[in-house]
Specification:
Elements lengths: L1 E6 L2 H6 L3 E5 L2 E2 H8 L1 H8 L4 E4 L2 E2 L7 E2 L4 E5 L6
Parallel strand pairs: 1-7
Antiparallel strand pairs: 1-2, 3-6, 4-5, 4-7
Helix pairs in contact: 2-3
């Protein structure tokens, strides 16, 4: 049983990969542990969004992902 974690933009650069498999079920604290310190800090940044199966969470600490789900880390948007 696994959750696919997808890294977008600069978060993919930070992770050194575009995606990784993490064992399910996955909630916020275990998610942070699976990412490692640097990525966990980036994920905790209020500007970083998290989506589960394409739906952006309004409160990332409510993360709950199960087998076959996709969790995407969306970096802060910049530009103009």
């Amino acid at each position: 049983m696994a959750v696919t974690v997808v890294f977008i933009g600069k978060l993919a650069d930070l992770a050194g990969e575009g995606e990784r498999e993490v064992s399910a079920p996955l909630e916020w604290a275990r998610f942070r542990d699976a990412l490692g310190p640097e990525l966990a800090d980036a994920a905790s940044d209020e500007r970083t969004k998290i989506a589960v199966n394409g739906k952006v969470l309004s409160d990332k600490t409510t993360l709950a992902a199960g087998d076959g789900d996709e969790v995407a880390l969306l970096p802060p948007v910049s530009g103009g």
